Amino acid sequence: MPIDDQRRLIDPARAEAALAGLGDRATLQEWAERFSVIADPTRLTLLVCIHYAREICVSDLAAVAGMSDTAVSQALRLLRAHGLVTAHRSGRTVYYRLADDTMHELIHRVRPHSESDGVG
């Protein structure tokens, strides 16, 4: 999308840099939707727990988050639909993990690791 020619620019170079930084608008929309999903404190709690555990099953996640298995399963379904977590089955148990390094980095920004956490 070009810069509106009808507007007077104070610093065209910075305006061009800002426009270039926006990149694909569809990607911005996708991330806005992801942020709206993780803005919920319950879902963010689950993501932080998954981050620290590396991978975890629903029952264990429910226990540490103080939620019912059903509530955790519903939240995980939404997180999975938005590509924030992935799952794999081991026997009868399904384990969840964060979907990508970007989500790990976001969690580091929300809840940075400290030396006392024992997590590297």
TrEMBL record:
<dbReference type="InterPro" id="IPR036390">
    <property type="entry name" value="WH_DNA-bd_sf"/>
</dbReference>
<feature type="domain" description="HTH arsR-type">
    <location>
        <begin position="23"/>
        <end position="118"/>
    </location>
</feature>
<keyword id="KW-0805">Transcription regulation</keyword>
<dbReference type="InterPro" id="IPR011991">
    <property type="entry name" value="ArsR-like_HTH"/>
</dbReference>
<keyword id="KW-0804">Transcription</keyword>
<dbReference type="InterPro" id="IPR051081">
    <property type="entry name" value="HTH_MetalResp_TranReg"/>
</dbReference>
<keyword id="KW-0238">DNA-binding</keyword>
<dbReference type="Pfam" id="PF01022">
    <property type="entry name" value="HTH_5"/>
</dbReference>
<dbReference type="GO" id="GO:0003700">
    <property type="term" value="F:DNA-binding transcription factor activity"/>
</dbReference>
<dbReference type="InterPro" id="IPR036388">
    <property type="entry name" value="WH-like_DNA-bd_sf"/>
</dbReference>
<protein>
    <submittedName>
        <fullName>DNA-binding transcriptional ArsR family regulator</fullName>
    </submittedName>
</protein>
<dbReference type="InterPro" id="IPR001845">
    <property type="entry name" value="HTH_ArsR_DNA-bd_dom"/>
</dbReference>
<dbReference type="GO" id="GO:0003677">
    <property type="term" value="F:DNA binding"/>
</dbReference>
